[in-house]
Design goal:
The structure holds two protein chains of two kinds.
Chain A lengths: L1 H35 L5 H16 L2 E4 L2 E3 L2 H12 L4 H10 L5 H6 L3 H30 L2 H35 L9 H24 L4 H37 L8 H15 L4 H13 L2 H4 L3 H5 L6 H19 L5 H8 L23 H16 L10 H11 L6 H14 L11 H15 L1
Antiparallel strand pairs in A: 1-2
Chain B lengths: L11 H17 L7 H15 L2 E3 L5 E3 L1 H11 L1 E2 L2 E2 L1 H22 L3 H30 L9 H32 L3 H9 L2 H21 L2 H35 L1 H4 L7 H15 L4 H12 L11 H6 L3 H13 L5 H8 L18 H18 L4 H10 L7 H14 L3
Antiparallel strand pairs in B: 1-2, 3-4
Helix pairs in contact in B: 1-4, 2-3, 2-4, 3-5, 3-8, 4-5, 5-6, 6-7, 6-8, 8-9, 11-12, 11-16, 11-18, 12-15, 12-16, 14-15, 16-17, 17-18
The chains are: A mainly alpha, B mainly alpha.
Chain lengths: 450, 414
């Protein structure tokens, strides 16, 4: 307990240090810019500041943890429209408005907005300065050269923005939580959108310079793009919530498997992250885990819960139901790859085992299916079932290692054990290491209840 | 879907249309200020853009001609005045080229004619409205209080809105027979495409305004933001389709588990949707009916619980369990509400109608009962309908029953 308190205190101190440093950095940057540049026309600044704040307060989560918001586009449009001698100061002060989010106000967070202020001001100022450097060259050249300089400048400015932003987030997270964020590994997904948004922003800014009348049209385009992305994000959330809700509602009916799906999903994601999965692949494995037992949910309950072995007739009945549900889910295009993973989670590493569409006899199952198999087996061992009590985590680890190379993928097993170890949580019984004893205890409980 | 069919079968009609547009082009030529080369390039570009179509949420397919068409009166100016003769000429010539190109592509004369005519009416309305607004703002009645480029923006906004409303209306009228839905419903559906339309028209205007200064770079300025909005919008449409698929798939789980009749939710849903459309529910409400009807029996999944089978259950239990499952998703709260009340009678003995009972729930109750009678009890469609009529004292709202009857008559079942 004492250690925990110290940890929290350290965390608070680190937060305080980061927030102060970043905010001071932001103030210094603004002060320096004030001595160097003059403020852009107030009307133009207000219009852009309003748009910037609007988008910044409602960033949309588009692809797992990738936060996509058109602010960088608005920032660059504004920077070009303000022009050299105003851009850095104008954009930095604009960005400062986005520091306080609605959530900060609701949860009364203090450090977050203060640190955000510094981060936003520094990143925007860096972006503005880079752009100004290019714009000066652009204005010196002819029309063709102007556009080339502008394109290069907005791309470079967007990149600098991303780099400074990432660096500041990584430093903050490492100082406060002692964790390393592997943000750079997302670069291949983030880079095109940063570059694209930066480029569009620069172009629109240049158009604005030529004809003010396009300002409302530019905002309309921004808003539609944002609106479409937001609706898309919302729909994805709705989709996820619906499927998750169904699975939860269905499995809640069975005392013994309650929470199993959610746990297997959590373990699978932990393991996959440890193996370096990101983005769509990671998301896919989570979905596969969520639906891996849906087939069983449609099977008569007395069949699933029946203590002891099933007769071969009962077993094939169970398989038939499970496969029928899999077939239905496979009709959903989006779910098809997940159903394949899910249906192969009883395939063994050596090519034996059973399964639906995803299982091919004699072939090594996909890495995703192997992860799901390990996670499923681990949760099965460490939770109580109708026929046996929960076993200990160390027993489950030994058992996974013992079957590695035959039933389980050996590398996946090692990654899995390391990933669970990193969570510092313990699953299963603290002491039960003998499956026979666990079985006897479960039977004893049935007898004593009867 | 979407492509309208016209009852006008005679090949003479499209021929006359072609002659008319050629005539308009020839008559306008002496008044056009732009050079023949400029006019030709824009006309070809308009035709070209008309060949590319993008699907919208309603099922209508909108061509990129909305972008180029919207840009024309903004872009073609004679001094400070809008050059309407040039605009009209570009429209007429562009439509002619588009029609010929589509016929050569083998799109079918009827389709081409209906499509080109719809586009032509829209463009005409747009140009006339634009001219009227611009005239008032620039020259007419002492209202010249707007500075030079802003009057064009206002004219564009007004004319664009009129064009959009007319386009949705024309699409509704032209597809009402094919889709078997009232044109009012389809019009509302078409107006739901405002986002795609706005993104296209705004892109066109952006192009028009930046052309003057940026020339060829204006293409990039307009194309990039449009591409961004376009991609975002398609991902949205795709996600919406997948969402529907998922709900449909989930609704079939009790059926494959042998706890409900195979295909019951699907059939109930299609009958309920058609009835809801017949009763004039809005497109948004119809979507709720579709989802709620698909999932009205999802509560049956609970029936594989042996203890429940021993205890017995009522329709109310099924509705409640179903609503509980659906309510797990916060986005389906309305649908959950409809599922929860699907078993309720529309009135009880000695009482008035229950005003709080949603029409959607009443529709689902009747549609489900009809499917039960015809598929499970083996009644003929007419006998199935009689079951509803007989139950009209308490169970089935007579208005709903009459609507079901109309739907079945349209299907040719009774």
């Amino acid at each position: 307990m004492a250690r925990r308190t110290t940890k929290i205190r350290n965390e608070r101190r680190a937060k305080f240090v980061i927030a102060t440093l970043y905010a001071l950095g932001g103030l210094v940057v603004v002060a320096w810019l004030v001595t160097r540049e003059s403020f852009p026309p107030i009307g133009l600044w207000l219009a852009f500041a309003a748009a910037f704040a609007f988008f910044d307060w409602r960033s949309v989560e588009v692809n797992d943890r990738l936060l996509l918001s058109p602010t960088i586009m608005v920032g660059l449009t504004a920077a070009v429209a303000f022009g050299p001698g105003h851009a850095a100061l104008g954009v930095a002060t604009m960005a400062a408005l986005g520091a306080v989010s609605a959530r900060d106000v609701k949860e009364r967070r203090l450090f977050q907005p203060v640190a955000n202020f510094g981060q936003l001001v520094v990143t925007s100022a860096a972006m503005g300065l880079v752009l100004e450097f290019f714009l000066k060259h652009a204005e010196a050249g002819g029309t063709g050269a102007f556009w080339l300089w502008l394109a290069a400048g907005s791309a470079a400015a967007a990149l600098v923005n991303a780099a400074v932003n990432f660096a500041m987030v990584i430093i903050a997270v490492r100082t406060v939580f002692g964790q390393d964020l592997r943000m750079w590994s997302h670069m291949n997904e983030l880079l095109p959108s940063y570059l694209g948004m930066g480029f569009i922003g620069g172009l629109l800014g240049a158009t604005l310079l030529q004809a003010r009348v396009v300002l409302p049209l530019v905002f309309v385009v921004f808003i539609i793009g944002y609106h479409a992305f937001a609706s898309f994000g919302q729909l994805r959330e709705a989709h996820a919530a619906t499927l998750r809700g169904f699975v939860k509602a269905l499995e809640a009916k069975d005392l013994y498997t309650r929470g199993h799906t959610e746990r297997v999903a959590e373990f699978s994601v932990l393991c996959a992250q440890h193996m370096g999965f990101t983005g769509t692949r990671l998301e896919r494995i989570e979905w596969a885990a969520l639906i891996h037992d849906v087939g069983k949910l449609a099977v008569p309950r007395d069949l699933i819960r029946k203590p002891g072995k099933l007769s071969s007739e009962e077993y094939s009945e169970l398989q038939r139901h499970a496969h029928a549900v899999e077939d239905i889910l496979a009709e959903v295009e989006f779910l098809r790859p997940m159903v394949e993973i899910a249906s192969a989670h009883h395939s063994n590493y050596d090519g034996s085992g059973y399964g639906g569409v995803g299982h091919i006899e004699g072939e090594e199952p996909s890495l995703e299916a192997s992860i799901l198999a390990v996670a499923d087996a681990f949760d099965a061992m460490t939770s109580t079932r109708s026929y046996r009590m929960a076993l200990s985590q160390s027993y489950a680890f030994t058992e996974l290692r013992r079957n590695a190379g035959k039933q389980f993928h050996p590398e996946v097993v090692e990654h899995f054990i390391a990933a669970i170890g990193e969570t510092k949580r313990r699953y299963g019984s603290p002491f039960l290491n003998d499956p026979e004893e666990a079985r006897r205890m479960a039977e004893g409980r049935v007898e004593s209840r009867g | 879907m979407g492509d309208p069919k016209l009852s006008i079968k005679s090949p003479l009609v499209p021929f006359l249309g072609a002659v008319a547009s050629a005539l308009i082009a020839v008559l306008l030529y002496p008044h056009a200020a732009a050079s023949p080369l400029t006019l030709g390039i824009w006309a070809v570009l308009l035709a070209e853009s008309g060949l590319v179509k993008v699907p919208a949420g309603s099922g209508n397919r909108l061509s990129l001609a909305f972008i180029i068409g919207a840009a024309m009166p903004i872009l073609l100016i004679d001094g400070t005045q809008p050059d309407l003769a040039s605009t009209g000429l570009v429209y007429a010539a562009g439509l002619l080229v588009l029609g010929v190109a589509r016929v050569i592509r083998g799109d079918g004369l009827e389709h081409v004619h209906a499509d080109v005519m719809r586009l032509g009416v829209g463009l005409g309305v747009y140009a006339v409205t634009y001219a009227a607004i611009a005239d008032i703002l620039v020259t007419g009645g002492g209202l010249a209080w707007v500075d030079a480029p802003w009057d064009r923006l206002i004219a564009f906004v007004g004319a664009g809105a009129v064009w959009f409303i007319v386009e949705a209306g024309l699409w509704a009228i032209m597809t009402t027979r094919e889709r078997g839905l009232s044109w009012r419903y389809l019009w509302l559906l078409g107006l739901g495409d405002w986002m795609v339309m706005l993104s296209m028209m705004a892109t066109g205007a952006l192009f028009g305004f930046s052309w003057e200064k940026l020339h060829i770079w204006a293409v990039l300025v307009a194309a990039l933001p449009y591409g961004f909005a376009h991609v975002a919008f398609f991902r949205y449409l795709e996600a919406r389709r997948t969402y529907g698929q998922t709900i449909r798939a989930l609704s079939r789980i009790p059926e494959v588990a042998g706890l409900a009749l195979e295909g019951h939710s699907d059939r109930t849903s299609s009958l309920a949707v058609e009835t809801a459309q017949d009763l004039g529910l809005t497109p948004g409400e119809v979507t709720d009916v579709r989802y709620a009807a698909l999932m009205h029996d999802i509560g049956r999944i609970t029936l594989n619980e042996p203890s429940i089978l021993r205890r017995g259950f009522t329709d109310e239990d099924i509705a409640r369990w179903g609503a509980e499952i659906v309510a797990e998703s916060p986005y389906l709260a309305t649908v959950a509400g409809l599922v929860a009340r699907q078993h309720e009678p529309y009135r009880r003995p000695g009482e008035q109608r229950d005003p709080s009972l949603p029409t959607a729930s009443k529709i689902i109750k009747a549609a489900s009962a009809y499917d039960h009678a015809t598929m499970e009890l083996g009644f003929s469609p007419l006998e199935g309908l009689e079951v509803l009529h007989r139950g009209a004292a308490y169970d089935y709202d007579p208005d709903v029953v009459v609507a079901v009857r109309r739907v079945l008559e349209r299907r040719g079942a009774v």
